[in-house]
Amino acid sequence: MSSTPLDTALSALAAAARTPLREGASASSWRWSVRQQVTAVRAELVQQSGSSGGAWIDARGGDAFAERNELLARLAELGRSVLEDADVDEVRADVGHVVNDVARHVQRP
């Protein structure tokens, strides 16, 4: 099975979120790296939905479109919280939930 750009972006986001913070290192570089990956996932989800490869969303109907829009909103919120939320463990958990939810959304028939 071949990997799509969205699959690659999701993997990169999950990997960035799992990256441990180094002792004494500022969390800002970790936050920025994760934020960039959130942006990449969001862009790929929009691109996939708007391209001919996004015909799957049309075939699934209005529920899939609403679900995609909810995921886009969650990704936008996650992008903000990655930079602002003091609890890194909570941010990591949120990233994991969103990665799983986006992957499930794309895989549904």
Order of helices and strands: HHHHH
Instruction: Indicate the mean pLDDT.
Output: 86
Radius of gyration: 15 Å
Which outline best applies? elongated
Q: Cα distance, first to last residue?
A: 16 Å
Q: Structural class of the secondary structure composition? A: mainly alpha
By DSSP (H or I, 4+ residues per run), the number of helices equals 5
Helix content: over 70%
What composes the largest sheet?
none
Low-confidence spans: pLDDT under 50, at least 5 residues?
A: none
Total number of strands: 0
Strand content: under 5%
Label this structure with key terms.
5 helices; single chain; 109 residues; mainly alpha
Describe what you observe in this structure.
This protein has five helices and no strands. It has 109 residues and is mostly helical.
Q: What can be said about this structure in brief?
A:
The chain is mainly α and about 110 residues long. The chain has helices spanning about 5-20, 30-50, 55-60, 60-85, 90-105. Helix 4 runs antiparallel to helix 5.
Topology (SSEs and partners):
Blueprint: H1 5-18, H2 28-50, H3 55-60, H4 62-84, H5 88-107
